[in-house]
Amino acid sequence: LAPYKVCWPELSNDLRVGVVELSKDSRSKNKILIPDHTVIFIPLENREEAHYCSAVLNSSIAGLIVASYITLHPSPHILEFVRLQKFDAKNEQHLRLAELSKTAHALTADSEPDTKRLEEIETEIDKTTAELWGITTTELGDIQSSLADLK
What residue spans of the chain are helical by DSSP H? Predict the structure, then answer.
């Protein structure tokens, strides 16, 4: 029943992660949302942590890890292979990833999202995640190229 959930579809060929949180609109009356059985989720109490997790899991790096061994069911066990550091509210990279995720979520919620800006944010998420994991710019380029080949 956590107020924030990092979610992804259970049936998918790739990892597309989003954050579900309490809606402030009059229809939901601030009810806690619970995904159905076809959605995998990580329940979290903190909005920053949820967006940090979302950013890392949406990075090309995590995408390639998952795509390298999953064909249709990115189930919760992906967290055994994707190194997701415990969120640290004092870590600049964790906070930066959380902010980037919030911006990306806001852009995609728009009826006509700014796709150029979204691509810039996705690039920044990749760079920041690469720094977090000690991956060089060259290695990140290879990861992005390999992921593009798989799609």
Answer: 47-58, 60-67, 92-109, 115-133, 137-150
Using DSSP's 3-state secondary structure scheme, residue 137 falls into helix
Task: Say if CB 101 and CB 55 are below 8 A apart.
Answer: yes
Q: What angle do CA 143, 124, 44 make, to 5 degrees?
A: 95
Nearest to residue 22, comparing CAs of 2, 42, 52? Answer: 2
CA distances from 54 to 17, 26, 42, 97, 142 (A): 6, 26, 10, 9, 22
Q: Amino acid identity of 93?
A: Q
d(CA 93, CA 146): 25
pLDDT tens figures, 69-101? 766 665 666 777 788 899 999 999 999 999 999
Q: Tell me the whole-structure pTM to 2 decimals.
A: 0.87
User: What is 80-94 written as a DSSP string?
Assistant: GTS--PPP-TT-HHH
